[in-house]
């Protein structure tokens, strides 16, 4: 099978012929129909993700069709499935309490095991997967990937966002746009932050009530002015000190900050304004991924037309173009996300 392989950090991915994956006893082999290209993949590509080493096949935002099923598999040949990027064991205390995204035995295709920048993918613990609804294209399903699922859990499982609350979104990449669209569907008033005017204009066209260009400085102060005292909920979608502090500082008293952006490598430890947390009686939440049992609520929102996630997808690309998309994350990216749909070129 064809696969895009990381051979050296910060260099184009190598398109290679690799053996077909072996089918797990408790899982399936998927023919990959589509796979998103995510900033989390970029962290591995530049060498800052501690688990991603040369030789890795990246890609964790996938959907596919079952071509082989193990003896203990949940699904059968021909099923079309979507996946969370965290595959939980299902039996540990975390899983049994409904917090599968914190499973200590989790499996991570694309980071530790071969991922979906390839024609075929082995998926263990297939009880985490969900059927791809007929109304969702594989391209859109892959675009949901980790960004939409993570944003959904951040807003519902962590911040408990309420209608009419102000939601600030710092960064308008895939996570940021997902948070905007879902927040609007939940009845929130959304304000977006970025340094690229084109992306701010795009976000406003998708329903953001206000936009702040962080290049102008005093982001928190401008948000407090626009919202009449500060956001109730603020989501940080980049994982860097500047936006993390702006997210915390833009909150009104008793506000909730949700750390969605991945602090890794040189940003794994950062200096933040704990005085603002103390004085404002703020709550800080971390979040990563989504428990698989939340798929029905998210998919129902999309299938019933309560939210249209299609504006998230900006371009469909070839497998050979995945490295170019990763390199684009080195600077400000254009609006929307890229999804690999052609695995033969």
Structural overview:
The protein has 2 domains: 2-146 and 290-342, Medium-chain alcohol dehydrogenases, catalytic domain (Quinone Oxidoreductase, Chain A, domain 1, Alpha-Beta Complex), CATH 3.90.180; 149-286, 3-Layer(aba) Sandwich (Rossmann fold), CATH 3.40.50.720. Helix 3 (138-158) crosses helix 4. The chain contains 10 helices and 15 strands. With 345 residues, it is α/β, with parallel strands linked by helices. Helices cover 27% and strands 23% of the residues. The relative contact order is 0.16. Belongs to the zinc-containing alcohol dehydrogenase family.
The level of helicity is: 25-40%
State the shape.
globular
What's the main sheet like? 7 strands, mixed
Quaternary arrangement of the chains shown? single chain
Specify the CATH architecture of the largest domain.
Alpha-Beta Complex
- Based on DSSP secondary structure assignment, what is the total number of beta strands? 15
Structural class: alpha/beta
Family: Belongs to the zinc-containing alcohol dehydrogenase family.
Domain Enoyl reductase (ER): 8-340
Protein name: Alcohol dehydrogenase
Cofactor: Zn(2+)
List keywords for this structure.
single chain, 345 residues, alpha/beta, Quinone Oxidoreductase, Chain A, domain 1, Rossmann fold, 2 domains, seven-stranded mixed β-sheet, six-stranded parallel β-sheet, 10 helices, 15 strands, Alcohol dehydrogenase
């Amino acid at each position: 099978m064809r696969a895009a392989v990381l051979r050296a950090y910060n260099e184009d991915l190598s398109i290679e012929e690799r053996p077909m994956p072996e089918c797990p006893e408790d899982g399936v082999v998927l023919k990959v129909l589509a796979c998103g290209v995510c900033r989390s993949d970029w962290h591995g590509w530049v060498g800052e993700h501690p688990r991603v080493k040369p030789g890795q096949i990246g890609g964790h935002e996938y959907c596919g069709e079952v071509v082989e099923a193990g003896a203990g598999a949940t699904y059968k040949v021909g099923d079309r499935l979507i996946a969370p990027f965290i595959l939980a064991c299902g039996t540990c205390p975390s899983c049994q309490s409904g917090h599968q995204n914190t499973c200590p035995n989790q499996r991570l295709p694309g980071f530790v095991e071969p991922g979906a920048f390839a024609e075929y993918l082995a998926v263990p613990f297939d009880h985490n997967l969900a059927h791809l609804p007929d109304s969702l294209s594989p391209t859109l399903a892959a675009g949901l990937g980790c960004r939409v699922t993570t944003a959904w859990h951040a807003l519902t499982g962590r911040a408990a966002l309420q209608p009419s609350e102000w939601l600030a979104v710092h960064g308008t990449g895939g996570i940021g746009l997902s948070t905007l669209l879902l927040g609007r569907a939940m009845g929130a008033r959304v304000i977006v932050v970025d340094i690229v005017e084109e992306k701010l204009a795009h976000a406003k066209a998708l329903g953001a009530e206000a936009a702040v260009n962080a290049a102008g400085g005093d982001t928190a102060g401008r948000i407090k002015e626009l919202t009449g005292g500060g956001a109730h909920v603020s989501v940080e979608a980049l994982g860097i000190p500047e936006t993390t502090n702006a997210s915390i500082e833009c909150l009104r008293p008793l506000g909730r900050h949700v750390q969605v952006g991945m602090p890794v490598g040189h940003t794994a430890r950062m200096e933040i304004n704990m005085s603002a947390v103390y004085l404002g009686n703020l709550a800080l939440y971390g979040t990563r991924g989504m428990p698989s049992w939340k798929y029905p609520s998210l998919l129902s929102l999309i299938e019933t037309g309560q939210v249209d996630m299609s504006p998230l997808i900006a371009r469909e690309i070839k497998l050979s173009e995945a490295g170019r998309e990763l390199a684009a994350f080195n600077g400000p990216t254009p609006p929307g996300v890229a999804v690999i749909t052609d695995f033969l070129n």
